[in-house]
Input
Amino acid sequence: MNFNAAVEAHVVHEPLVEVRERPVQRCFVCVHGEIPIGGMRPVTANGRSIVVARLSDGSYRAVANTCPREAARMSDGKVERMWHGDEVGEHRQNGRCVIICPWHNFEFDLDTGRSACETDRMRLKTYRVAIEGGNVAVYV
Ligand code: FES
Output
């Protein structure tokens, strides 16, 4: 007899806390091209406040429109290429883009949502974006 198999059959896995998950919805937020390169648009999708940004390569990113620091509207900020450097005083731009908070200029990577300076502490929620049938869809 396999004792472990008999015990396993009676184990009931219950979550420690109730987790309410909202089903992901596809929300069309604009026509492809309506947002200019380097521009942003605040939208409400599936009850969430989101900002959709268009990068210099024409692609889109979507993140939460509320700054995790003191709740500024990220859509009042701006989108820029990310600056970085390996030495003090060295400044180079790479291919990644950030959204810059309008209140205290914290930068958040538009691919990961992470703060450029406090990567483990502050983060914007990111959402999947796709161009479908000539429209921009955000999966929220
Ligand atoms: S409210 Fe966004 S950095 Fe201060």
Q: What stands out?
A: Residues 67, 69-70, 72, 101, 103-104, 106 surround FE2/S2 (inorganic) cluster (CB under 6 Å). Residues 3-7 have pLDDT under 50 and may be disordered. Residues 23-139 form a domain with the Rieske Iron-sulfur Protein fold (CATH 2.102.10.10). Helices lie at 3-10.
